[in-house]
Amino acid sequence: MIRFLIGKLAYLIPTFIGITVVAFGFVRLLPGDPVLLMAGERGISPERHAELSAQLGFDRPIVVQYLDFVMGIFQGDFGTSLATRRPVLGEFLTLFPATMELAICAIILATLIGIPLGVFAAIKRGSAFDQISMGAALVGYSMPIFWWGLLLIILFSGILGWTPVSGRIDFLYFFPNGTGFMLIDSLMSGQKGAFASALSHLILPSIVLATIPMAVIARQSRSAMLEVLSEDYVRTARAKGMSAWRVVGVHALRNAMIPVITTIGLQIGVMMAGAILTETIFSWPGVGKWMIDSISRRDYPSVQGGLLLIAGIVMIVNLIVDLLYGIINPRIRHS
Amino acid sequence: MKFAHLAMVSALAIAAAAGAQAKTLVYCSEGSPEGFDAATTTAGTTMDASSDAVFNRLVEFAPGTTNVEPGLAESWDVSEDGLEYTFHLRPGIKFHTTDYFEPTREMNADDVIFSFLRQGDPESPWADYIPGTTYEYYNAMEMPALVKEIRKVDDLTVTFVLNRAEAPFLANMAMPFASIYSKEYMDQLEADGNMAALNSQPVGTGPYQFVAYQPDAVIRYKANPDYYKGAQKIDDLVFAITPDPAVRRQRLEAGECHVMPYPSPADIEAMKANDDLQVMEQPGLNVAYLAYNTTVAPFDKPEVREALNMAMNKQAIVDAVFQGTGVVAKNPIPPTMWSYNDAVEDNAYDPEAAKKMLTDAGVENLEMEVWAMPVQRPYMPNARRVAELIQSDFAKVGVNVSIVSYEWGEYLKRSTDPTRKGAVIMGWTGDNGDPDNFLAVLLGCAATGDGGANRAQWCNEDFDALLQKAKVTTDQAERTKLYEEAQVIFKDQNPWATLAHSQVFMPMSKDVTGYVMNPLGRHSFEGVDIAE
Fold first, then answer.
1. Which of 394-423 (B) contact A at CB < 8 A?
2. Which band of pLDDT confidence, cut at 50, 70 and 90, is reported for residue B18?
3. Which of residues 143-162 of A touch B (CB under 8 A)?
4. CB within 8 Å: B3 and A48
5. pLDDT confidence of residue B96
6. Has residue B71 got a pLDDT over 90?
């Protein structure tokens, strides 16, 4: 197991170096620069442009800027945002709990609905339930998030008035930002109704962010289950007279879950992309919306630092998934 | 429903239990502020959150106008030669008392001098108090070249000595960068080694004082009990950051906020029809235009530019693109600005005459570029569509247009290139309500060249002489005449096709009273109330 872990960690080093290059290069490949955007319609003389670029350190050779960026990371310094002039790491850590809270709720929702949906569809293969649920999954997978989010807001918040439109909690509640997780902070605040308000604000964004992963998980669960159900040992178990639920629940499900866990892990990365749109629609103060703002402002330090941190988190999640995979499936671990 | 209902009921119960009949106004703002230091920003969103809510200036723009009125200075004198402005400060002005600062003295001349010196003195520890700090507006308004000295006459009297007479100086002093800061607070931050806090925990003298900011989510303020014009009618002001206009509308309609800026043009009619809402509107202090490059043939000939302007059906363009949210522009300054010359006649739409004029000028089979910006701006909802309509109009007079666009930063840069081919769609929103801020910035000889905002590269000696004269004349009636004359020269020479002035809309709950729209595009909640 330790060799397996070391092997996985060794993969991370070149990946990490690659990500620093991509994160650093990506934003600089985009046309336009922050000084020009800051000047706007007024324009800026070449001299003043050079002066401001020098003040921001953009006049140095690109390799020096890159090395400076990488060296900074090793010292925990991800740079300072050009727009807010606050440390990038600090900004990220302030906003990340909001994204994480939303992503955790969404992945729980996607898993709790997606797996049973896929498993039942597999068991009832060809039935109306199978057809409808897999059709719905396909629609969910193809849904443009922006449109879907607005549709839910208009229906549930606008017409029915069941849920709040956006934000994380009602403005009547005001308490210090402790953990950054609104559900926990609202509970700890002791203010009556705060937790319910926070929870009600989570419903729509969680559904929107969960939609695509839910569809993927459901379809993956169905095909994995179908494959396992055709295995010899399942036939043997059935032949031995085991109840259908026992066959599915004990023998088939565990094996079918191996590829599903990988899929769930991969969905964390997909979710980071989905979070950008979901957060924008629901005014959710997470890192996705922050990245969009930073890209449009050409805030180099925020974009490169943010990309690196998000990529790092996705890498760690994937590593954990790989390890889980190894635990569940000894063949992987020993191969 | 249960959750939302429960939350609301419980929250109201808490408020009632606390005996707090606090009035809270929620403003669904369009974005996150970069920080709270009004002197360092060029972004309107940041100005709303800092200078308008928290700070005051020596002079202020009177609500709803660009006229300058007394602010922290109750009066001022200007020397005969226009080189000395002496401000008499209002006594008894208190800076905000907050969790992080308790003032021990009232505002005085030291605060005023310090607020400007920190921007103009490169040796000041505040010049670069956070790496990357720039005082862009202080520089853009030419303050370093303009201000020779700021002299303390006594505790409540300050004199600004200028290097040259400059009539727009007073209007500059009402701009956000001229906000007055507490020297005592900044000295405390410097002593504590915590200078960066200036950008996150502001202390001013304004109508509201800062309480808390949760990045990208919410900014909270409370009414300043010591405000020199009297305490505000609302107790708490909340900026709920909501970047998407469709979601802002939903929040407004659901009662989650009281006021929202920048509605989507497509939503305006529906919001006007909503009985629970009121939609305020006013002409924006802006202009959208098409700038020819007057140094490149054949656009160096005024008659060619005039012919092209006559080939353009501007009313149809404004109707199609602005959809009732704009008016055709004939002058380079908007109609709401003083010195607007309404006597100027716009180029009449006459494709036949235009075609003949082009032929007479020896222009045939002209191929030209029209540049369309890739982004929406307050003065321009859809530049691409405008370019397409111009393309179609010009085709009727035998001019073949190709449409060009670049990423916004590149567009801004390349459009100032003196060798640029073709005409560029651009626009401007006023900073201080002074005609000089349009005419000199966008059409003055000093603004030509690489990086300058004179994208027509048009330098007309007569026009420029009028601007220079107006700049050093302090009598507004005299200045008005000079600017009116300048607009006549502009129309005669046609360096631009003036396209449109856009209308600005502000939807809000019917319960909101006392809100006054700001022609400069700022959003201030001073004097606003919510009906019971």
1. 406-410, 412-413, 416
2. very low
3. 150, 153-154, 157-158, 160-162
4. no
5. 97
6. yes
Asked if residue B176 lies in contact with residue B41, where contact means CB atoms within 8 angstroms, the answer is yes
Which chain B residues are Cβ-neighbours of A88 within 8 angstroms? none
To the nearest 10 degrees (0 to 180), the angle between helices A145-152 and A253-281 is 80
Q: What is the pLDDT of residues B357-411, one digit of tens each?
A: 999 999 989 999 999 998 888 899 899 999 999 999 999 999 999 999 988 888 8
- Asked whether the CA dihedral B266, B268, B274, B277 is positive or negative, the reply is positive
Q: Is the pLDDT of residue A331 over 80?
A: no
**A38, closest residue in chain B (CA to CA):** B42
Of chain A, the end-to-end C-alpha distance in Å amounts to 11
Please indicate whether, in this complex, the C-beta atoms of A167 and B416 are within 8 angstroms of each other: no
Q: Where are the beta strands (DSSP E) in B359-460?
A: 367-371, 400-404, 423-429
**CB–CB contact A283 B412 (8 Å):** no
What do you get for the CA distance between the two ends of chain B, in Å?
Answer: 26
> What tokens were used for A138?
């396909």
CB pairs under 8 A between A and B: 194
| Closest-CA residue of chain A to B22 | A172
Cα–Cα distance measured from residue A60 to residue B507, given in angstroms and rounded to the nearest whole number: 47
Q: Are B338 and B61 in contact (CB under 8 A)?
A: no
pLDDT band at A334 (very low <50, low <70, confident <90, very high): low
Question: 3-state class of B84 per DSSP?
Answer: strand
Q: Determine the pLDDT at residue A259.
A: 84
Contact A43 B214 (CB under 8 A): no
Percentage with pLDDT > 70 across chain B: 96
Q: What is the pTM of this model?
A: 0.85
Q: Which of A106-110, A249-253, B224-228, B312-316 has the lowest mean pLDDT?
A: A249-253
| Cα angle B475-B477-B482, degrees, rounded to a multiple of 5 | 95
pLDDT computed for residue B331 by the predictor: 97
Beta strands at B59-61 and B68-70: parallel, antiparallel or unpaired: antiparallel
pLDDT tens-digit map of B123-141? 899 988 887 788 888 988 8
Least confident of A196-200, B2-6, B112-116, B133-137: B2-6
HSE toward the beta carbon, residue B111, CA cutoff 13 A = 27
